[in-house]
Write a structure and sequence with these properties.
Keywords: Membrane, Transmembrane, Transmembrane helix. By secondary structure, the protein is mainly alpha-helical. It has one domain. The protein is built from one helix and no strands. The chain is rod-shaped.
């Protein structure tokens, strides 16, 4: 009675090869996930910086507008007071 070796299942060498291949694939997937996470974090930071700069521009513009209004009001008041 002859038994084929293939029918007995994978050899220990084949099992180790498969495990190392799966482990290698897991490392590639983990590296890809890390790169994607890093990219998302950098994009979010860039977006926050852009929003902060826009907000700063808006606030400075509003402040200058208010200062101009106060200066005009004070100048007009001093002119009418002296007349």
């Amino acid at each position: 009675m002859s038994v084929r070796i293939d029918a007995l299942g994978p050899t220990p060498g084949q099992i180790c090869y498969e495990i190392s291949g799966i482990t290698l694939l897991k490392h590639y997937i983990a590296a890809f996930v890390l790169v994607v996470n890093f990219t998302v974090i950098i994009a979010a930071l860039a977006f926050l910086v852009r929003v902060a700069l826009s907000l700063r521009t808006l606030l400075v513009s509003a402040l200058l507008s208010n200062l101009k209004r106060v200066a005009y009001f004070n100048a007009h008041r001093s002119i009418t007071r002296s007349a």
